Amino acid sequence: MALLDVRDLVVEFPTRHGTLTALSGISFSVDKGERVGIVGESGAGKSVAAFAILNLLSRPGRIAGGSITFEGQDLTQLSTQRMRAVRGNRISMIFQDPMMTLNPVLTIGTQMIETLKAHRDISEAEARRIAITRLGEVKIPSPEKRLDSYPHELSGGMRQRVVIAIALLTEPALIIADEPTTALDVTIQAEIMSLMLALCKSHGVGLILITHDLAVVSQVTQRVVVLYAGRVVESGETGRVVHNPVHPYTRGLLAALPGEAPPGARLTQIRGTMPSLNAIPEGCPFHPRCDYVQDRCRQAEPALDSLDGHLVRCVRAHELMAGQAA
Amino acid sequence: MSEAAAMTRDSGRESGGAPAADRPLVEARHVVKHFDLGGHFLQRERPTVKALNDVSITIRRGEAFCLVGESGCGKSTLARVVMGLLDPTDGEIRFDGTRIDALGHRARKPFHRRMQMIFQNPYASLNPRRTVQQTLEEPVRFHFPKLSDAEVKAKVEQVMVSVGNDPGWGNRYPHEFSGGQRQRISIARALMVDPDFVVADEPISALDVSIQAQVLNVMMDTRERLDLTYLFITHDLSVVRHFGSRVGVMYLGTLCELADTKTLFETPRHPYTRILLSAIPRVTTEEMQPPGLPGEVPSAMNLPSGCVFHDRCPLANARCSAEVPKPQSQADGTLVACHAVEEGRG
């Protein structure tokens, strides 16, 4: 059984000008110890998915349909109190900005010990010992001393390490990381991502890595889900998706990466922009930007088709896969 | 140079006989920039951020010179010193042969027209209370006061079309546009006054991947069509590889290596450059590896002795912590500031 199983999840934001559907029925699962990437551009709904899983949607956002099954229980049906036992305990979250997690007026030690004591019945000394071990695991030099530091005394990379240490404190089964290294420099990104990769493996923790960066996803995750306008447009084994993308949007994203094109050549660009949620086009939401568009794409939204395990939401998926579409 | 040519080109006077086409467009010579932080009046040594320490670069006509490095390496400071937004503490800036860092406001005005800048955040760099038309007209009216209204309008339209914008956007306000569109408006604003040189400070970092490609394409098109010279500041090495003709790699206020883009990516020499290149994420199923860079970037207020990279460098020895390496020219013209490379230790 999957560790996390998200089925037909619908998230809506009612506004004065009508209801906006941020996620229209997305499904994906994460197995125990598996690393899954969720990729998409701004507004695709990737962060909304993370917040929905943790029941942290800001009002008036609400889950309007579907289920989120984690360790056998449906998180959408849990009481606030039962949810608290899951959030920050069985599922941890890492945000882009470490200061979203860290309290600027408390020492690192206080924050770590409080987190542990909130979820476990243990002594201060025991909590302190675990905190030091975790800080050591994320390669923070002299962890005993760091317990007495305030977040502002650390660099951005060090803060993100502390956040990872906090995320690991309660030995969760799943970590959701939302653009954890986007604000960091490349060498620090490589340091932090390789560290997360190693820790997920050694602790057997599942990971949902939310990012816009397909290169990072390809080097960290085992499976990837590509979101566009609140829908899954492609998903499958990471190697297969990045090396043999089928959906025109995934192909466009990969082709737009400057590292993959010959130097100086014109970059392939996806024309237009991501539609806003109140103006999602009829039929396939990607059709106004698609190079392979046909009449039928404008009429009905295609279903998510399985091409032996590789899911693609495109009426021309078979042709594209065989390389026959023009 | 003939007399007539010399007369029409008064900016060329200082550099004597060098023909204008061979002369580098922009030169930064031994630039030092320190920021004084005030501090307590009893403190013997006032705290100073040593943002740039003896950096020299030469930008040739028509090239896309890229400066790369991580946060705090001084790349943006150097760009701002070149643009005259900051005064250098020491060293000099030359534009088309004329030393410009010491010029007064009036003498500098023609250079302001020829040097334009594009900023990172298109949400902050456009005035939200002005229509796109007003934003674009202002620099033209300032630098070309003799143009008629009709000529200014024609110019706006022509530039908007040239960067792929709909000229009908003129009456709209910045908030009506997406990040990519705003950045194309910023590019249009920079191009309004027919500059020779454009500094772009992380112009695509705030944008989505598919939009980055649009903006990069516009920048490459305009460079070719208008014969522009770019100074492109970025932390994204895959963009450099795609866009740059030459690259300067900076670390903690010094220039480590300066090379042709192709040479730099094929044979990086400075240990820092090698680590930086190895850390670029690639589309591959190989798992991400730690870059092998111990510790953190030291504070620019308290620079390490000798080579600023020595305490993190895998090749460092005693000489590195004592003596500051000078940029040395290699056989292929690459400049490398490293004792290990010089001695063949690496």
TrEMBL record, chain A:
<dbReference type="InterPro" id="IPR027417">
    <property type="entry name" value="P-loop_NTPase"/>
</dbReference>
<protein>
    <submittedName>
        <fullName>Peptide/nickel transport system ATP-binding protein</fullName>
    </submittedName>
</protein>
<dbReference type="GO" id="GO:0055085">
    <property type="term" value="P:transmembrane transport"/>
</dbReference>
<dbReference type="GO" id="GO:0015833">
    <property type="term" value="P:peptide transport"/>
</dbReference>
<keyword id="KW-0067">ATP-binding</keyword>
<dbReference type="GO" id="GO:0016887">
    <property type="term" value="F:ATP hydrolysis activity"/>
</dbReference>
<dbReference type="GO" id="GO:0005886">
    <property type="term" value="C:plasma membrane"/>
</dbReference>
<feature type="domain" description="ABC transporter">
    <location>
        <begin position="4"/>
        <end position="254"/>
    </location>
</feature>
<dbReference type="InterPro" id="IPR003439">
    <property type="entry name" value="ABC_transporter-like_ATP-bd"/>
</dbReference>
<dbReference type="Pfam" id="PF08352">
    <property type="entry name" value="oligo_HPY"/>
</dbReference>
<comment type="similarity">
    <text>Belongs to the ABC transporter superfamily.</text>
</comment>
<dbReference type="InterPro" id="IPR013563">
    <property type="entry name" value="Oligopep_ABC_C"/>
</dbReference>
<dbReference type="InterPro" id="IPR050388">
    <property type="entry name" value="ABC_Ni/Peptide_Import"/>
</dbReference>
<dbReference type="InterPro" id="IPR017871">
    <property type="entry name" value="ABC_transporter-like_CS"/>
</dbReference>
<dbReference type="GO" id="GO:0005524">
    <property type="term" value="F:ATP binding"/>
</dbReference>
<keyword id="KW-0472">Membrane</keyword>
<dbReference type="Pfam" id="PF00005">
    <property type="entry name" value="ABC_tran"/>
</dbReference>
<keyword id="KW-0813">Transport</keyword>
<keyword id="KW-0547">Nucleotide-binding</keyword>
<keyword id="KW-1003">Cell membrane</keyword>
<dbReference type="InterPro" id="IPR003593">
    <property type="entry name" value="AAA+_ATPase"/>
</dbReference>
From TrEMBL, chain B:
<dbReference type="GO" id="GO:0005886">
    <property type="term" value="C:plasma membrane"/>
</dbReference>
<dbReference type="InterPro" id="IPR003593">
    <property type="entry name" value="AAA+_ATPase"/>
</dbReference>
<dbReference type="InterPro" id="IPR017871">
    <property type="entry name" value="ABC_transporter-like_CS"/>
</dbReference>
<dbReference type="InterPro" id="IPR050319">
    <property type="entry name" value="ABC_transp_ATP-bind"/>
</dbReference>
<dbReference type="GO" id="GO:0015833">
    <property type="term" value="P:peptide transport"/>
</dbReference>
<keyword id="KW-0067">ATP-binding</keyword>
<dbReference type="InterPro" id="IPR027417">
    <property type="entry name" value="P-loop_NTPase"/>
</dbReference>
<dbReference type="Pfam" id="PF00005">
    <property type="entry name" value="ABC_tran"/>
</dbReference>
<feature type="region of interest" description="Disordered">
    <location>
        <begin position="1"/>
        <end position="23"/>
    </location>
</feature>
<feature type="domain" description="ABC transporter">
    <location>
        <begin position="26"/>
        <end position="277"/>
    </location>
</feature>
<dbReference type="GO" id="GO:0055085">
    <property type="term" value="P:transmembrane transport"/>
</dbReference>
<dbReference type="Pfam" id="PF08352">
    <property type="entry name" value="oligo_HPY"/>
</dbReference>
<dbReference type="InterPro" id="IPR013563">
    <property type="entry name" value="Oligopep_ABC_C"/>
</dbReference>
<comment type="similarity">
    <text>Belongs to the ABC transporter superfamily.</text>
</comment>
<dbReference type="InterPro" id="IPR003439">
    <property type="entry name" value="ABC_transporter-like_ATP-bd"/>
</dbReference>
<keyword id="KW-0813">Transport</keyword>
<protein>
    <submittedName>
        <fullName>Peptide/nickel transport system ATP-binding protein</fullName>
    </submittedName>
</protein>
<dbReference type="GO" id="GO:0016887">
    <property type="term" value="F:ATP hydrolysis activity"/>
</dbReference>
<keyword id="KW-0547">Nucleotide-binding</keyword>
<dbReference type="GO" id="GO:0005524">
    <property type="term" value="F:ATP binding"/>
</dbReference>
